[in-house]
Design brief:
The chain is mostly helical. Helices cover 70% and strands 0% of the residues. The protein has one domain.
Amino acid sequence: MHGPTSPGWMLVALCALTGSYCVLRMRSRVPEQRRAAGGEALMGFGMAVMAVPAAVFPQPGWAWPVYAVVFGAAGLNALWSARTDAHHLHHLVGAAAMVYMAVVMAAVPEQAHGHGHGHGHGAGGSGVPLLTGALLLYFAAYVLVTGARLLPAAAGGGGGGGGAPVRWGDRPELARACRLSMGIGMLAMLLAM
């Protein structure tokens, strides 16, 4: 993605750490949580790779179509999984956003050849494209709602009354924090386009 190098590396670190935690969540005893964590791990690592600053490591031209195919397949999987769990609709929107960003970024080298530095907008340079704006609004709302849901979990004290300790992969407040950080990362990536 085009943008400043330091925030780009912070975004890479945030997304990679989130993806790593999602891999831990894949060890949950709950099958549905494992499936959701797998999709979120793919999203976290994919966002980390796509967020590597172009000034440091420019993505090869073939990478963007590969990202579009991988996240297109993830979107189809999320659409199929949404039959039984509505949370997968969010995964579908996330995968669609990643496909959109990959397609836009694939067009950047052609624009950058004649103009020095492309902005990644295929809309003639007149403001934010409609789809980018819609995705920004969706992820901003998602971040606010997820953050609000996280607050009661932190204030509630947790633990839930005894028995076996809760495993790292089964902690709902950590799963929400993971989703919150990926939503913030998606907002940052969309703004950097």
